[in-house]
Automatic annotation (TrEMBL):
Protein name as it appears in the record: Large ribosomal subunit protein uL10
Homology family: Belongs to the universal ribosomal protein uL10 family.
Function: Forms part of the ribosomal stalk, playing a central role in the interaction of the ribosome with GTP-bound translation factors.
Subunit details: Part of the ribosomal stalk of the 50S ribosomal subunit. The N-terminus interacts with L11 and the large rRNA to form the base of the stalk. The C-terminus forms an elongated spine to which L12 dimers bind in a sequential fashion forming a multimeric L10(L12)X complex.
Record's keyword terms, sorted: Ribonucleoprotein, Ribosomal protein, RNA-binding, rRNA-binding
Pfam families hit by this protein: Ribosomal_L10
Gene3D superfamilies in alphabetical order: 3.30.70.1730, 6.10.250.290
């Protein structure tokens, strides 16, 4: 039995280390159909939800170097959301699903080794998508360059307008 637990903890530790985030949710009262629907929605973002024994998760979290305070949230019927991609997209799906079905309830989470409360995860859910943030950053980076190009182009454009006005006046 001890060897089996060690294998389970090692497997869980591998999953935890592969994911930059871990959300702990209370799935009490969630039907199998709804749980399967949540699993399907999370899969679109590259995230997964699993149910493990809380004691195994505590041991894996300790070995992964997660904050000790996480252990206070590992009680009751807990499911764990992990993924290797966009944490904001997973948080958004969790928030929207909980709003739609009133379950599961987000307890806490860990992002890059830092403990998050339920409100912190909801803040992540409210952030724009990764693509939107990248487009905004690109716009900020391009703004000075486009202003410089307009500034350098203005003397030549002014000269062209003056010459055109003189040419139009001479033709009339």
């Amino acid at each position: 039995m001890k060897a089996e637990k060690t294998l389970l903890i090692d497997d869980l530790l591998t999953r935890v280390n592969a994911s930059p985030f871990l959300f702990v949710v209370d799935y009490t009262g969630l039907t199998v159909d709804k749980f399967a629907e949540l699993r399907k929605r999370l899969a679109t973002t590259g995230a997964e939800i699993h149910v493990f024994k809380n004691t195994l998760v505590k041991k894996a979290a300790e070995r992964a170097g997660y904050p000790e305070e996480l252990g206070t949230h590992l009680t009751g019927q807990s499911a764990y959301v992990m993924g290797a991609q966009d944490v904001c997209a997973a948080a958004k799906i969790m928030k929207n699903f909980a709003a739609e079905f009133t379950k599961p309830k987000i307890k806490a989470g860990v992002l890059d080794g830092n403990l998050l409360d339920a409100e912190g995860i909801k803040v992540l859910a409210d952030l724009p998508s990764k693509e939107t943030l990248q487009a905004q950053l690109l716009g900020v980076l391009q703004a000075p360059a486009s202003k410089l190009v307009r500034l350098l182009n203005e003397p030549a454009a002014s000269l062209a307008r003056v010459l055109k006005a003189k040419g139009d006046a001479a033709a009339a």
